[in-house]
Amino acid sequence: MDHLGVLKKAWRITWRYKALWVLGLFAGAGSAGSGGGGSWQAGDDELSPGAGRQIEAWLTDNMVLVVVLAGFLVVLALLFWILSLAAQGGLVWGANEAAEARKPALRTAWGVGFNRWGRTFMINFVLGIPMLVLALVIAPIVITAGVAGFLIGEEAAGLAAIGGLCFALPIVIVLVVAVSVVTGIINPLALRYGVLHDITFGEAIRRGWHDLWGKRGAFVFWLVMLLPGIAAGIIMVLLMLPFLIPAIVMIAGERFAMATGVFLLGGLLMLLPTAIYGTFASSAWTVFFRTMTGMETPSIDTAVQYAPSPPPAGTAAPAAPTLPAEEAPPADE
């Protein structure tokens, strides 16, 4: 498979149909999770006692405002989650329309996304169960180590934690990476089966699983997609640094309101690259899926590439076929 050609076509779709960036914003941010980058957090000894008392007094005096704001954020997060699932299905449909040389309509794409919302949700939910099981297995180990350390003593807790980590951490890392890779490949394939082939979520997941282990190039393409993902991450970090560094300095100087404003400004700036990369990544998987399943038609460049070549110079052109004597037309008199 021509992976470079797949990426080129995905970029042409992304750049030509900018209306899809709206879907890419929700789909990209909704599927990115909380990974990437670290967060800076000041320790207790880095904040003066006066600043701590001021924050505590403000929270006490404005408790109603804090509760209302927290509820608003919860509702906003729920709404964003609903839109992100609809955007995933709509973006798959939109990229497929663009690959078929048809202009995708944003309203129709949203309609398809909401029409396939339940199917998209179930695909994400079912494929998220293995990671949830791992979390449920790891959590008791961490809690048991913490409780044992609390009952026995601080030094014993440290020794127990170190011993548990040395034993369990390598196994946990291998399992988490393996599950993440497998589900990270099956998910985009199953989503496209569900949206483009209009089949149930169970059958879509089954076909995605079969494609992964049937050596149809899905794992290789997942590796290929790591490169633009890393490049996009580096670009986003570089774009965020002019906002992140001043915000950290402001936090260290206890200018929290200004730091929050700078963070928000940087977050608004990141919306555009997030939308572009979300559109590109989904389009790339759609073009790959079309190629893998035989939906992709040869482009004009491919048709020219495989067109019959002219005869070499000096070679006589083949003569026109002549009719047999009995089939020759009568001569004009």
Describe the structure.
77% of the residues lie in helices and 0% in strands. It is mostly helical and 333 residues long. Helix 2 (20-32) packs across helix 4, helix 2 (20-32) crosses helix 10 and helix 4 crosses helix 5.
Mean pLDDT: 77
- What is the terminal separation in angstroms? 63 Å
Strand content: under 5%
Radius of gyration using CA atoms only = 29 Å
Search tags:
333 residues, mainly alpha, single chain
Secondary-structure topology with pairs:
Elements: H1 3-16, H2 20-32, H3 49-61, H4 63-99, H5 106-115, H6 117-152, H7 154-196, H8 201-213, H9 218-252, H10 256-293, H11 300-305
Question: Quick recap of the structure?
Answer:
The protein has 333 residues and is mostly helical.
